[in-house]
Design a protein that fits this description.
single chain; alpha+beta; Immunoglobulin-like; Lipocalin; 2 domains; nine-stranded mixed beta barrel; 32% strand
């Protein structure tokens, strides 16, 4: 009897320990505010343990369903950011992953900033355009001289234009705070260029590659193109160059990486928060395979920033599509010229 009782106690204890150690699964659907499935989008669903800070990452598929596997039982915060401006970020605190069973939980997202159409949402549009590309992992296309061929239409994977915190000096931070209060920090609302570097915008962009220059044509931008000179010319002297929205770009190859060096920006162009005409940007484009283009960006402004600003993101090839025309006829430049209170500052 004692032996049987001891064995039973051991089995119960083992079962309890096993239950505690058994990883669990969280599954469910991503739903819009009307209860519909959020389909056609893929994203990570991240669980963060509220005690240890350990993270477990799952995947939201294009069918609107997600699964996070291998979760140690405990209490977690959930985070989901879909690549779309149609929906706000989903965050939920203190979700308990049960010791004894898997968990099912639908994630209800709130509406975001746009009007709900593909044309208003560059991230959703980009995902749809990239979905047409086949053989993503295939070999890199090359020109007769052996250089990677960047030609084609590309869209950003994720929100590349959203910058991480900028290393602003106190005076520049004060200006940024002033602009944020009056919401006067978006030249694109006045039909002016939205970003200093066209690759940062989340609308489609096409590279047209030749021996002496690369032309970049970008939707939803005015004027919508920039030239990268590849003929070895230097930047013009500052006194000979009128500061421009896109600056002056020269490029060269370092192995299979295209390096673009740009100076000569004006003081208003967005994408880098508050900056001066000393802004200097280096971009590095590396085509990893047929369907993916890695971009690294390094920017400095000794008059406005305390350190180098860096970003890294991925662009995806959008086969079978073309750039469409963009016409903007709202506002005029004088409305923006009044919005540069940092002009003339150190």
């Amino acid at each position: 009897m004692k032996r049987t009782l001891s064995l039973l106690i051991c089995l119960l204890a083992f079962g309890t320990v096993a239950a505690k150690e058994l990883p669990r699964t969280l599954t469910g659907r991503a739903l819009d505010p009307d209860g519909g499935l959020i389909a056609r989008l893929e994203a990570d669903v991240t669980l963060t343990n509220t005690v240890s800070g350990a993270k477990v990452v799952g995947h939201l598929g294009r069918d609107g369903r997600y699964a996070v596997k291998g979760i140690p039982p405990g209490t977690y915060n959930i985070d989901l950011l879909v690549p779309s401006r149609l929906y706000d970020r989903y965050q939920r605190a203190n979700v308990v992953i049960d010791i004894a069973k898997d968990t099912t939980l639908d994630l209800g997202l709130s509406w975001g900033m746009n009007l709900g159409t593909v044309g208003d949402d560059p991230l959703l549009q980009g995902a749809d355009l990239r979905a047409k590309t086949r053989n993503i992992e295939g070999p890199v296309s090359r020109l007769p001289d052996g250089r990677p061929d960047l030609s084609g239409v590309w869209t950003n994977i994720g929100d590349a234009v959203a910058p991480p915190p900028m290393p602003l000096k106190p005076w520049a931070q004060n200006v940024a705070d002033e602009l944020a209060k009056i919401r006067q920090d978006n030249p694109g609302a006045y039909c002016l260029p939205q970003v200093a570097i066209p690759s940062l915008i989340n609308y489609p962009t096409r590279f047209v590659q030749s021996a002496d220059r690369i032309i970049q044509i970008t939707e939803d931008m005015d004027p919508g193109y920039r030239q990268v000179f590849m003929d070895g010319r230097p930047h013009p002297a500052p006194d000979d160059w009128n500061p421009a929205w896109y600056g002056h770009s020269v490029g060269h190859w370092e192995g299979d990486t295209l390096v673009v060096d740009t100076v000569g920006f004006n003081e208003i162009t967005t994408g880098f928060s508050v900056h001066t005409e000393k802004l200097h940007v280096i971009e590095r484009y590396t085509r990893l395979n047929h369907g993916r283009l890695q971009v690294e960006l390094f920017a400095e402004d000794p008059d406005a920033w305390t350190a180098t600003h860096q970003r890294k993101w991925m662009m995806g090839l959008a086969e079978g599509t073309e750039i469409v025309e963009f016409v903007c006829a709202e506002g005029h430049a004088s409305q923006v010229s009044q919005r540069a209170p940092w002009k003339g500052r150190p």
